[in-house]
Design goal:
Number of domains: 2
Distance between the termini: 22 Å
Structural class: mainly alpha
CATH superfamily of the largest domain: 5'-nuclease
Number of helices: 8
CATH class of the largest domain: Alpha Beta
Helix content: 40-55%
Oligomer: single chain
Largest sheet: 2 strands, parallel
Number of strands: 4
Shape: globular
Order of helices and strands: HEHEHHEHEHHH
CATH topology of the largest domain: Rossmann fold
Radius of gyration: 15 Å
């Protein structure tokens, strides 16, 4: 989590994402909700509430990077012209910016959770990080 505050000027999430997270976020997180509830409801036809709220907010804020790991949510965001990255993208960016010496320990932590990380994606991340 700390990497987010080091990599991005602002880190914003929605109350729907927060509710699904189930833990207290650091104080540097900003909680902002989408104002266009119709857009969010339309997105909820395809996605869960957290992902729909994040995409709806990104469409309102514009010129931001949205962090999404869910494949379907990423496709929807791309379809709407949003710039996206995922957890692996954040980790790779941290390595490239010299914030971490290696992505391998973080990949090991991800593997120990329910994060979906197949061998091909892991190899891609290691290559992109220059390891």
């Amino acid at each position: 989590m700390e990497l987010l505050s080091l990599l991005y000027d602002k880190v914003i999430t929605t109350s729907e994402v927060l509710a699904g997270y189930g833990a207290i976020l650091p104080e540097w997180f900003q909680i902002i909700n989408a104002t266009d509830k119709n857009c969010q409801k339309n997105l909820e036809q395809e996605l869960d509430k957290g992902e729909a709220s994040a995409i709806a907010l990104a469409l309102e804020l514009q010129d931001i990077t949205t962090i999404l790991d869910d494949y379907k949510a990423r496709k929807v965001a791309i379809r709407h012209g949003l710039e996206i990255t995922g957890t692996l993208g954040v980790i790779i960016k941290a390595k490239k910016n010299g914030l971490i010496p290696s992505i391998l320990p973080l990949l090991a932590k991800l593997r120990a959770t329910n994060f979906r990380l197949n061998e091909e994606l892991e190899r891609f991340a290691i290559t992109e990080a220059g390891e």
